[in-house]
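User: quick one, sequence for these tokens?
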């Protein structure tokens, strides 16, 4: 894996968990808005919107640099629109990056089958 691909995956990982947290907080704020006088939806909605846009930008970058097939790219996008999907995306991206690093080291050292 080259440095640009690793950086793209890292950026996507870094925004996936905060995006999931903001989504969950937005859902809580929505419930509180309807059941109490507390209304943090405009603020939380803006924060979540910014994080979601960043996720989509980083997702497109990772898709092009990691050369994912359509199925894998679609999976990461679907995970971004599920309330806890960002946590699963983070875990999958971490595993993918680690396996890519291992494969890259094996190729560099000339190990057969890597």
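Assistant:
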């Amino acid at each position: 894996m080259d440095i640009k691909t690793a950086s793209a995956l890292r950026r996507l990982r870094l925004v996936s968990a905060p995006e999931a947290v903001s989504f969950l907080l937005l859902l809580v704020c929505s419930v509180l808005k309807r059941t109490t006088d507390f209304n943090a939806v405009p603020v939380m909605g803006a924060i979540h919107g910014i994080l979601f846009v960043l996720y989509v930008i980083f997702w497109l970058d990772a898709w092009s640099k990691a050369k994912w097939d359509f199925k894998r790219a679609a999976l990461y996008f679907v995970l971004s629109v599920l309330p806890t999907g960002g946590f699963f995306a983070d875990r999958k991206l971490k595993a993918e990056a680690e396996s890519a690093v291992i494969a890259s080291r094996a190729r560099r050292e000339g190990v057969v089958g890597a």
